[in-house]
Amino acid sequence: MPNQPSAPAGGGGADPVRPGHPGHPTGDPGPRLAGFAACGLDGKPPNAAQARRFVAATLGDWSLDALIPDARLIVGELVGNAVRHAVGPGSPADGEYPVWLGVFLRSTELVCAVADPSSQPPRPASACHPGAGRGLALVAEVSADWSWEPTPPRGKTVWASLPLAPAGPGRVRPAAALRTSPAAPPR
């Protein structure tokens, strides 16, 4: 079917996306990689909905149903931003799949990462455009941490993590502050 993401890939200990890229969310040292799934997206508006379906199916397969609502919100916002701001007429997109979604299951967290062809950093909404562009604020609110990093030779990867253990009574999951510069991924 056209515009359908690829099926989840099996997971192993190796970094199947960017071997040797030490700042990548799956790079070592850090919690062991327990699962991996990815899909290529064509950079068109239906991609956010496809990404939400893909992450829901993947997390369902991994028996992580409790994380599905937050993960769907995260990937929908990150993919939506990539399609709106990084892919389009005159963009440096190459190939059939200019946007990639990776879902990394680690021993302590789930990391959702979206790679796109633009080297421009993600920008939080400005006060000049109320009601629009609140995606990064939502991602920060539901994730334990989020950031971005350049993806040489061009492009960037924006990622967000969710803890595998739910916040207990009286314990609030931390909301990361909005960042506009690269930061080290969660360890």
Set down the secondary structure blueprint.
Elements: E1 33-41, H1 47-61, H2 68-85, E2 99-106, E3 109-116, H3 135-142, E4 145-150, E5 156-163
Antiparallel strand pairs: 1-2, 2-3, 3-5, 4-5
Label the structural class.
alpha+beta
Topology as a string of helices (H) and strands (E): EHHEEHEE
Query: What is the molecular shape?
Result: globular
The total count of helices amounts to: 3
What does this structure look like?
With 187 residues, the chain is of the alpha+beta class. It has helices at residues 47-61, 68-85, 135-142, and strands at 33-41, 99-106, 109-116, 145-150, 156-163. It has a five-stranded antiparallel β-sheet, with helices on one face. Helix 1 packs antiparallel against helix 2 (68-85) and helix 2 runs antiparallel to helix 3 (135-142).
Keywords:
disordered N terminus; alpha+beta; 3 helices; 22% helix; 187 residues
Write a short abstract of this structure:
With 187 residues, the chain is an alpha+beta fold.
